[in-house]
Write a structure and sequence with these properties.
Shape: elongated
Number of strands: 13
Family: Belongs to the TRAFAC class translation factor GTPase superfamily. Classic translation factor GTPase family. IF-2 subfamily.
GO molecular function, one term: GTP binding
InterPro entries: TIF_IF2, TIF_IF2_dom3, TIF_IF2_dom3_sf, Transl_B-barrel_sf
Distance between the termini: 58 Å
Keywords: GTP-binding, Initiation factor, Nucleotide-binding, Protein biosynthesis
Pfam families: IF-2
CATH topology of the largest domain: Rossmann fold
Strand order of the largest sheet: 6-7-12-9-8-13
Structural class: alpha+beta
Oligomer: single chain
Length: about 260
Amino acid sequence: MSCGCGGKIIGISNLIPLGSEIYILQENSKKLLSSLYKEEIKEEEEISLIEDDNFSAIFDEEQSDGDTELNVIVKSSSQGSLEALKNSLAKVKKDGYSVKIVSEGVGDISNKDIDMAKLSKAILLGFEVGLEKGTEDLAKKSGVLVRTYSIIYKLIEEIEDALDMLSTPAHQEEEIGNAIIKMMFTLSDGSKVLGSRVKDGILKRDCKCYVVRNDEVLVEAKIKSLRKGKDTVTEVKQGEDCGVILDIDVEANEGDELYCYKVSR
């Protein structure tokens, strides 16, 4: 087959997208074929849906709005596979979060689909379909997340991971230590110091803390400064005495407790 000539290829079950590269190899070109295959596999290794920067933007917006539905647009290669996808997505639920299909269709992903996804703040999911010319560039410019799959369970798996992430609280608190207040005094600059002894774990500077009296939270604050004797330190361990300065004023009493937390997302 010479350059510019048409031809017929047998043994391929799906239509080849326009612009695809086809290699014609001799029987003894196994080494070249192997290298091309490895290169193709490497190119296909991509980040997961929840690792995509565009999903991070969707995640932040969902968290701030309090939405419990993940909007998606579904495109598939046939009506049969589209119905199967819709049925599978309807079953994906996680702690009150579910999938909402805002649009659906058969055929390649188009510019119209990108516009719809941008308007509805949806993820575009394609199953056994490609992208029309210019669609990928438009998606990047519009900040629209487009994902295409050839295996249905992979699509469902990534949507499950997305719902799992959305259902996770925006911020999680982990207690890292607590202390009992032994005395209070005021420095020359007016700063109020809570003289404390660490009962469990550690107290750490810049961490969130609660001042508690008789199991009732008096105030929520942040540890502005920690001192051991005359030294300013970043943390104080179990059994050690320290001076704690909070970022807000609090009317604490001897016997009140400090609970220190690490906040993570």
